[in-house]
Amino acid sequence: MKKLWRAPWFGPLCAVLAVYVLFALLAPDTFPRTANVLTMARQTVIVSLAAIGMTLVMIQGGIDLSVGSTVALTTVIVARALDGGSGPWAAAASGVALGACVGAINGLLVTGLCLLPFIVTLGSMSALRGAAKGLANEQKVDADPKGLDSLMALPGGAQGGFLLPTGVWVALALAVVFAIFLAYTRPGRHVVAVGSNLETARLCGVPVGRITLMVYVIAGGLAGLAGVMEFSTLTVGDPTDSIGLELEVIAAVVIGGASLSGGRGSIAGALCGALLLTEIKTGSTHVGLPNWVQEILTGAIILVAMALDQWRERGKGAG
Amino acid sequence: MTRGVGRAWVLLGLFALSGCKREAPAAGTSSDGGAKPLRIAVIPKGTTHEFWKSVHAGAVKASRELGVEIVWKGPLKEDDLKQQIDLVQSFTAQGVSGIVLAPLNDKALVSSVKAATGAKIPVVIFDSDLASEDHVSFVATDNRSAGKLGCAHLAKKVKDKGGAVVLRYQEGSASTNHREEGCLEALKAEGVKILSDNQYGGATTETAHKASESLLLAQGATEGKVAGVFTPNESTTFGMLRAVEKANLSGKLGFVGFDASDKLVAGVEGGAIEGLVLQDPFNMGYLAVKTMVQHLKGEKVEKRIDTGSKLVTKANMNEPDMKQLLRPELDQWLK
Amino acid sequence: MAEVADPRLEIRGLEKSFGGTRALSAVDLSIAPGEVHALLGENGAGKSTLTRIVSGVFAADAGSMRLDGKPHAPRSPAEARRAGIAIVHQEPAICPHLSVAENVVLGAEPARFGWVDRARVRAEAGRALALVAPELSPDAASSSLGPAEVQLVTLARALAQTDCRLLILDEPTASLAAPEVERLFEVVRRLASTGIAIVYISHFLEEVERIADRFSVLCDGRQVGSGAIAGTPATRLVELMTGQTLEARRRREPRTGGEVVLSARDLAGTRLPVSASFELRKGEVLGIAGLVGSGRTELLRAIFGLDRVTRGELRVRAELGPASPGRRLAQGVGLSSEDRKREGLAEALSVAENLTLSKLPAWVRPARQASAARRLIERLGIKTAGPDQPVRALSGGNQQKVALGRLLHHEVDVALLDEPTRGIDVKSRADVYAIIDELASQGKAVLVVSSHFPELLAICDRIAVMHRGRLAAATPVAELTEHRLMLDAAGVG
Questions:
Q1: Tens of pLDDT along B181-205?
Q2: Helix (H/G/I), strand (E/B), else coil: C66
Q3: A184 contacts on C by Cβ (under 8 Å)
């Protein structure tokens, strides 16, 4: 029990359950319906995928502000690829590859030029947004999704079925893969070491540069995959899509127990954080809250989650 | 631990409840003896533009008259496509009686609307069209003729003075596209030279303002090379109005805009704007919800419903009809 | 110079320059297996540069190294590690978010196809920990370790290397208290007896005399002497290090303090101190002796208002009232932290900015700031390129002088000094003692915390011993010996 209480994802999970119960009480007819739960799971996929990558980056001690722009650029690339005659798999693969390339550029700038990740990704955030608009001729790009739209579609129609959309399975599988990567592999532990104390890691022979680069490439690739999922939802390439997504992703990761100064973070926690944000969004719709209340509520919940986490951490120190 | 956490959640709960109350009037009218009231989701493109406030008021009017409940919910960020899709999905999962939607994109919302109709939730589209046959009806201004109406007037004014420019809104937005095309048709029919019709104002007033300034500059408006200007919606019209005022061109060029707001009406009064094509957003909101209710009650509805448009100029702006269009009394519906 | 028959490490004519500055010139060194070799020199003499070349951080410009007869020219720390070179750095550093075991094996995790073998991590870490700190659990969270334990973990890390042949210890006792030093020596001797060659860097000559077999002294990047420790008096070593004969410290006549300026009665903090009572008078130096973790630093922090006081009474002159650093500074009480890097100095700022930080006028005039700084630089003998130089670029001793200089600039009446000579060279240490003397003779009150007892005996008028959070009554130094202090601090007196 004590171990559970100390797990970084325990708090966020409690919050997810508490908010679920809250909205289930406020909208008992609609909120707890299976169809609604499935819809929420589906709507969390994009933030979740990006949050897995962001968790790695933040544990390593960095930050990636270019996620939203990468997602938008990917939707455009995928749409252009489909439009140009490539098959759905090739288009999806090119989206992920593009994301990884973006990550590699971010990583190389951080390690090669010794620039702060905040600055580097602030720059790439703007540059990639511009690239997306340019590539899309400043308009939405129509393309036949050729089946890619089924990634995020519910099997068996909107109402029924207990099976989740493919995208949800993909996100869950990747979360497990990267959680294991962080906990049980050598490069995974090195990510934590670098974020915890960069100089020590360097002195101990940890290839700091390579680890940093790797983290940004993974995060970029996952952002690319999130972009593919976004395209699957939108079915058009939208260069103005996902403005501000990076903040939502960072919020999810921070709710999940990550520290902006590195060393701490949990993928399970980040998923809970992402789910929490979706719950608030959907719950507000069900209860009929105006947008401004929803925004205040979101901010308040982030702050409460942070305060609780801080308090829990302090308890840890004394114990 | 439990006490601290518990207290926090109670607080949040109170917060949520206090938010709830504000929407209460819409639900208060349902009293069809025992039967569950119809619950209709109305999803605009945004919630902060004046235009959408009028739509909201019209929808509220219909809901009160017909005794149904409406849930008014737009994307958190104005014009955010993903969020609008999410909203349609959420309302579908919620199982509302019907969805009334102003789609941000004519293709991207097709599959969500299909899913909704698949779940036996009918959809009425308003304001902008959707490239689909799944919806019950399309309730909107006939934008082509509205564009024509505005630019026929503009053409008369500038015919002998020189060319005209059209600042477009955004690619992929069907309604404004039709207005622009209708306008161009009318201008060409009168033989007015088109100086520019390939610039876009973009989503916000700010981007529209920037685009307007550079367009006026590029076409040499200050040297009198531009005689007429047409803008297809509120944000582009307002952006252009500011640009015209800044360049000291008020009254020197014929400027026909689209939609009304206090500042645009003041522009007409002051002479900076020659005329405004007005849709009837209040009527649009009203008719959209009414159409949905009629459909839900098993009545037959038209596939296409025109909500009408008018041209307001300095000359006719004080006529009662126009006054109601220009300064709709929204307070009784929204407060 | 004495030659070794089969040296573990042999260095010939090593040269290294940074930009235009020559850091090392023509350094020769040979160390036998099982030997503890003391590497001596003031800060900036080139010791760190030398060890960094051996451990693969830098490449030498010229010269050669041989490890067990084979050429040794590591291109990276990892390569040096593989060759059997382990190093424990002066600033003990760990990753607080990893477990103790993970810190021990960091960078050399036993893994198969990238998968960390957790059982082997625990086993290997446990083996290494058993040598140096058997009471530490491999699963413990590193964030909860004290500085001494951190030092032991870094030592265990060095030992966990497969086939460690040469171990470099850079000021390993800087953050250790006496009993831990004893344990460290035991470990060092045991390691040496297994044939590991040990390079031991320290400023504490009495330590060196006890642990080392031979020594080499560097001065300004040149090797100025080496030989067997036995038969070389400490004064000779100091002469070699400083390049001058240091006048033996004259024992000054005891001062008697004036009125009480700072007093505590039964003071307690959240965890430490448990109970502390003392009176500090004008014109005296009061020492607080205690082991690491006894609550000395916490006492100073509580006095200065950095930590909460949970019980007891604290008066500055006659004033009671809430404590905060701002209020204390206004009352003329200043604190110099033991941790220069993290707390004491703003490393990126200039010397002048650091000196004047606590007492900036509302309208800062850089010229005035610089001239004030210049006066202090001259008065304290700070070696710097000028007031504008970032503090980061200064040696440890000069950084410490800047930290003390800030208190002088603030014109404090009460100076709280936490480990004022930690990690600084012999010459700077003498300068710091002189500053403390000068403060006291000007009628200021000084409270010094140190784990180096001979130092306390030399500079203080009275000393109080702290043990497990409790501060005993102060005793005049005339009645004290180092032996007595040691026993009291260890709680066996």
A1: 999 999 999 889 999 988 898 877 8
A2: strand
A3: 115-116, 118
Can you give the pLDDT at residue C19?
A: 64
Of C242, C274, C302, the one marking the end of a domain is C242
Rounded Cα–Cα distance for residues A72 and A69 (Å) = 5
Superfamily, domain B143-279: Response regulator (3.40.50.2300)
pLDDT digits (tens, 9 = 90+) for A172-220: 999 999 999 998 888 998 999 899 888 778 777 788 899 999 999 999 9
Q: Does C93 sit within 8 Å of A206, measured CB to CB?
A: no
C238 and C269 in a single domain? The answer is no
What percentage of chain A reaches a pLDDT higher than 70?
A: 93
Between chains, do A139 and B172 touch, taking CB under 8 Å as contact?
Answer: yes
Q: What is the DSSP code string of A240-306? A: TTTTTHHHHHHHHHHHTT--TTSS---HHHHHHHHHHHHHHHHHHHHHT--HHHHHHHHHHHHHHHH
Amino acid B19: pLDDT: 41
pLDDT of residue A9: 84
Q: C209 and C292, same structural domain? A: no
Better-scored residue on pLDDT, C161 or A284: A284
The B residues from 204 to 223 touching A (CB cutoff 8 Å) are none
| A203–C93 C-beta distance less than 8 A | yes
Q: What's residue A240's pLDDT?
A: 87
Q: What pLDDT, on the 0 to 100 scale, is given for residue B7?
A: 47
As a whole number of angstroms, the distance between CA C154 and CA A204 comes to 10
Pairing of strands C414-418, C445-450: parallel
What's residue B25's pLDDT?
39
Same fold, B22-141+281-308 and B143-279: yes
The rounded distance, in Å, linking the Cα atoms of B325 and B149 is: 16
Q: Does B12 touch chain A (CB under 8 A)?
A: yes
Instruction: Say whether residue B76 is in contact with chain A using an 8 A CB cutoff.
Output: yes
Q: Given an 8 Å threshold on Cβ–Cβ distance, is A154 in contact with B86?
A: no
Q: Please state the pTM of the whole predicted model.
A: 0.73
A295: closest chain B residue by CA: B76
Q: Does B181 contact chain A (CB < 8 Å)?
A: no
**Considering only CB atoms, which chain A residues are within 8 Å of C76?**
205
Residue range of the domain that includes C187: 9-242
**Which residues fall within 8 angstroms of residue A123, CB to CB, at 6 or more apart?**
none
**A251 phi, psi to nearest 5 deg:** -60, -45
Search chain C and give the residue with CA nearest A199.
C93
Please give the backbone phi and psi of residue B170, each rounded to the nearest 5 degrees, phi first: -150, 140
Instruction: Indicate yes or no: CB of B94 within 8 angstroms of CB of A30.
Output: yes
Domain B22-141+281-308 has CATH 3.40.50.2300: yes
Please report the pLDDT score of residue A109 as a whole number: 95
Indicate the domain borders of chain B: 22-141+281-308, 143-279
Question: What's the pLDDT tens digit per position in A220-235?
Answer: 999 999 999 999 988 8
Listed in sequence order, the residues at least 6 apart from B119 whose beta carbon sits closer than 8 Å to its beta carbon are A35, A157, A158, A159, B92, B95
Compute the radius of gyration of chain B from its Cα atoms: 22
The 10s digit of each residue's pLDDT in B280-335 is: 888 999 999 999 999 999 999 999 999 988 899 988 988 888 887 887 778 888 87
In chain A, how many domains are there? 1
Structure token pair of residue A232 = 């699957």
User: Rounded to an integer, what distance in angstroms lies between the CA atom of residue C256 and that of residue C272?
Assistant: 30
> Residue C64's domain is classified under what CATH number?
3.40.50.300
Six-digit token pair at B187?
Answer: 């201008």
* Cα–Cα distance, C428 to C352 (Å, whole number): 19
One-letter amino acid identity for A71? V
Shortest Cα–Cα distance, C262 to chain A (Å) = 30
Average pLDDT, chain A: 88
- CB distance C28 to C184 below 8 Å: no
CA dihedral A36, A40, A41, A46 (to 10 degrees): 150
Question: Which residues of chain C register pLDDT less than 50?
Answer: 1-2, 244-250
